[in-house]
Amino acid sequence: MPLIDFKQVLIQARKEAFGVGAFNPVDYASTRVIIETAESLDAPVILQTSAKTVSFYGHKAIADWVRHLAEDTTVPVSLHLDHGKDLDMIRACLDHGWTNVMIDASDLPFEQNLERSRTVYELAQPYGVSIEAEIGEIHGVEEDIVVEEGHGSVVDPEKAVLFCEAMDLGVFAPAIGTAHGIYKGEPKIEWDTLETLYGRIPGPFALHGGTGLEDNIIQRCIGLGCAKVNISTQLKIAFVDGFCDYHRDHPQDYEPLRVIGGQMKSMSEVVRDKITQFGGAGKGAALLTSIGETISN
Question: Do residues 206 and 171 touch, judged by C-beta distance below 8 A?
């Protein structure tokens, strides 16, 4: 199946109140695990690459992996740039077949954020690619982006409405109190803000900082429009621990493919658990049918 823009998938996910897992792969093996696990669960999935990962492997290599691994799937698979800040990198992703890109200008004042986001929105239009954009800074560490605790800012609903009216976003990322990385305490979700946004903005939202959130929090967020749920840190932990745990249990085994197999098993368990938790299992083939009907109409 060719890679597809996640916009219609997320619109449908919001309507049906389930979440689509958006996982950050770090190599070919993790890319394969994410796609194969989603396929086994008949679930839509988003492969979202960090800028650091794109810089490390190069645009062509990553695009080739994902296209190759997705070509025989029967579920929607999207390739997304996560937290893009550099316009040259965003252009290169568009040129190499990314189906979606995020512009993260959330550290700028509102008007500059809107201007930069609209620039990327217009840049993406000829490619038929939708974008993700963010208002309010989500604290924590996401790749090389660091926002100290207490310095993040919750989205202003009035500005969020203006922002979303200015562009037909594929997904909107509002800062509502979640955090990237590992939570050091109980997250303070701004439920009133999210409920206001849900009532005033009809499009899907992205929930950043999904790792470590309690299930009741995730389910409530999904019910309030968070159709895209990001998992990065938890997959990285499984990537490293899966490798180390296999070597600890088999200290004399130096066959790299068996070690990588143990690593992949650890990551697959995370992806499987999260897709099931978000309610995406069993939705993939039906989504492709509904999306096809939407396009044909």
Answer: yes
* Distance (Å, whole) CA 233 – CA 191: 24
Closest CA to 280 of 5, 30, 39: 39
Distance between CA atoms of 233 and 147, rounded to whole angstroms? Answer: 16
Q: Known catalytic residues?
A: 82
Alpha helical stretches, state H, the chain = 7-16, 28-40, 51-57, 59-70, 87-95, 110-124, 157-166, 191-200, 215-223, 233-249, 256-278, 284-296
- Radius of gyration over every alpha carbon of the chain, rounded to an integer in angstroms: 18
The b/e string for 87-102 (b: 16+ C-beta within 10 A; e otherwise) is eebbebbbebbbbbbb
d(CA 141, CA 228): 19
Query: Which structural domains are found in the chain, ordered by start?
Result: 7-296 (3.20.20.70)
pLDDT tens for residues 61-106?
A: 999 999 999 999 999 999 999 999 999 999 999 999 999 999 999 9
Inter-residue contact 224 to 194 (CB < 8 Å): yes
Residue found by looking up tokens 């995406």 in the block: 280
The rounded Cα 41 to chain-centroid distance in angstroms is 18
200, amino acid identity = R
State whether residue 84 is helix, strand or coil.
strand
Q: How far is CA 297 from CA 126, 150, 194, 285, 291, in A?
A: 21, 47, 32, 19, 10
Please choose, from the candidates 5, 8, 96, the residue with its C-alpha nearest in 3D space to the C-alpha of residue 283. Answer: 8
> pLDDT tens digit string along 173-224?
999 987 755 545 567 889 999 999 999 999 999 999 867 788 999 999 999 9
Classify residue 214 by its DSSP letter: -
Written as six digits, the tokens of 204 are 């899907």
List the beta bridge partners of residue 171: 132
* Among candidate residues 74, 64, 4, the one with its CA nearest the CA of residue 28: 64
